[in-house]
Write a structure and sequence with these properties.
The complex is a heterodimer of chains A (269) and B (270). Chain A is built from 13 helices and 5 strands. With 269 residues, chain A is mostly helical. Among the domains of chain A are: 36 residues, no CATH class; 113 residues, Cytochrome p450-Terp, domain 2 (Orthogonal Bundle), CATH 1.10.230. In chain A, a hairpin with a 3-residue loop joins β2 and β3. Chain B is mainly alpha-helical and 270 residues long. Classes of the chains: A mainly alpha (269), B mainly alpha (270). At the A-B interface, α1, β1, β4, α2 and α6 of A face β1, β2, β3, β4 and α5 of B.
């Protein structure tokens, strides 16, 4: 038993190189003065610096900004995470409760953060295996055998992902559309399309590939994408707030399809 | 009604509408029981909670077990991270919901939190009451090769990595729960606690006791995770309210508690 040694060491003693506030004076953010050294950075640049400790260059900031703009914020309240924000609006809850809950919900298995981190993780592991001389078809087969699926390929509603072309078109203007990981993502798709049940790539693998080409680790990429749905969610909250309260997709009693235990009485013991 | 309309499928809840308003329920049935026409005044809070999760009325020992567990978990105390989070909301005058969301977010984790309970329940499902399986699981936990939203566990689930010995409230809770139901995981845990602690290299934690109780209640890992999140909220709520009342001046800020290792110092004018 190690006991409370680490707790005793850390009581009133948080040792960090992440940053600190010096009241009425200055703020240090990862070793730099926020006002004097990071003040010109766009917010996306500061976010990435906070996550990675590396200041992104202008082209990288434009790429990462486009990843959010083109791929993540659909103001459609039918989408499950957006629906949380819209329901908060129709129920007249606050904007930040709406955004906080909707963003938390975005850490989902079917969409959002889990497919994202799993997609970049696959690409990095696949590249490692390729570098060791393993054939890509074998890499794909092993992944499917072991984990049943490859995140970033296949889509529940439709085969075609409308976001891929606009994103890669924009990435091309920056010279980022033909990186090693983007190429790998397409090579994997080629293999998956040749299978009996063809699987098209979806935006998750393209976003992950672009991030991997910029040197992000899986957890850096996951954190970078954390708030990426916020613009669409906010719009959904605004929309619902502007309509009469309670009117977003109301469900009448008959819309519950019950298939449980039959009617019964709670007998007093 | 247009029959082709989408519906919410449920094995839990049924409603019949009022004659004058299809959106107002005249009666609500939970697993067949009329909630407002029959259950009210008859079923206790924990009996109803059990019914919601299990879709069956609990046996008396199950109700007693859940009642005891609910009391044990209701307030982790203001030093605990999830309650600390709720108080951090309360002291700044944040919305009450955000205080509870803060408690849920922090209390969802793998150090004393709900995901740890889920993992510990999974251990019960995998190891049952087999000492050898438990020893292997605690000494050689399975590792996920892929990155995930959840970080890797840093200690055996259900045990306290910073503990010196099994804390008195943990032992008292285990004893009280085992008195409700001695035959299952709880009784076995009582008997084998010290050998499990030796394998884990650290003492049993409240999360581990909760997991055993959840397993004895027949809850799976997901249900256990949800219930643990729910049951710990009362303490978060009241402590958030209390600190809101005391105000920020009387709440620890740790003014001298942070040491920056890479301070560049003042770097000139803006």
């Amino acid at each position: 038993m190690q006991g409370p040694t680490k707790l005793l060491e850390n009581e009133d003693n948080w040792v960090t190189d992440m940053g600190a506030w010096f009241p009425a004076e200055r703020v240090v953010f990862r070793g730099k003065d926020l006002f004097r050294e990071l003040g010109d950075l766009p917010w996306m640049g500061l976010l990435l610096y906070g996550i990675t400790g590396r200041v992104p260059d202008e082209k990288q900031i434009r790429l990462f900004d486009a990843m959010w703009v083109l791929c993540t914020s659909y103001p459609d309240p039918r989408l499950w995470n957006n629906r949380v924000a819209a329901l908060a609006g129709t129920a007249r809850s606050t904007a930040l409760l709406a955004l906080g809950a909707a963003n938390a919900v975005s850490e989902a298995s079917l969409y959002g953060r889990r497919p994202g981190i799993r997609a970049i993780d696959f690409l990095l592991r696949a590249k490692q295996q390729l570098d060791q001389g393993v054939d890509l078809k074998r890499v794909v087969a092993l992944e499917l055998e072991k984990h049943k699926r490859i995140y970033g390929y296949g889509r529940p509603v439709t085969d075609q992902d409308e976001r891929i072309v606009p994103l890669l078109t924009f990435a091309a203007t920056l010279g980022f559309s033909d990186g090693v990981y983007v190429g790998l993502a397409f090579a994997v798709e080629e293999i998956l399309l040749a299978r009996p049940k063809p699987l098209h790539m979806n935006i998750a693998i393209v976003l992950a590939a672009l991030a991997a080409d910029q040197g992000l680790t899986p957890h850096e990429y996951y954190r970078f994408m954390a708030l990426s749905f916020s613009a669409g969610m906010t719009a959904c909250h605004v929309d619902a707030m502007q309509k009469p309260e309670g009117t977003l997709f109301p469900l009448s009693c008959k819309r519950l399809a019950y298939c449980g235990a039959p009617r019964r009485v709670w007998e007093s013991v | 009604m247009n029959e082709s309309r989408e519906v919410i499928h449920s094995r839990i809840w049924e409603e019949t509408p009022e004659a004058d308003n299809p959106f107002a329920a005249a009666a609500c049935y939970c697993s067949g029981y009329d909630v407002y026409g029959d259950l009210l005044g008859k079923a206790s809070w924990v009996e109803y909670l059990y019914l919601l999760f299990k879709r069956e009325r609990p046996e008396p020992f199950q109700a007693a077990l859940l009642e005891t567990l609910a009391v044990a978990l209701a307030n982790p105390g203001p030093r605990e991270a999830s309650v600390h989070a709720a108080m951090s909301g309360g002291v700044g005058g944040s919305t009450h919901a955000s205080c509870l969301m803060a408690a849920l977010a922090v209390g969802a984790g793998q150090y004393g939190g709900a995901h740890e309970v889920a993992l510990a329940v999974a251990c019960w499902q995998a190891c049952g009451q087999d000492s050898t399986k438990w020893r292997d699981a605690l000494r050689h936990p399975a590792q996920e090769e892929r990155a995930d939203i959840w970080p890797a566990m840093e200690h055996p689930p259900g045990f306290d990595p910073h503990g010196a010995s099994c804390a008195t409230p943990v032992r008292q809770t285990l004893d009280a729960l085992a008195r409700c139901h001695a035959a299952g995981a709880l009784g076995w845990l009582q008997t084998h606690r010290e050998s499990l602690e030796a394998s884990a290299g650290c003492p049993l934690a409240m999360s581990g006791v909760a997991a055993a109780a959840m397993h004895d209640l027949g809850l799976d890992a997901d249900q256990a995770e949800m219930l643990y999140l729910l049951l710990r909220l009362p303490g978060a709520a009241v402590h958030a309210l209390e600190q809101r009342e005391y105000g920020w001046r009387r709440f620890p800020f740790f003014a001298n508690g942070l040491r920056l290792t890479n301070d560049p110092g003042p770097v000139g004018e803006i």
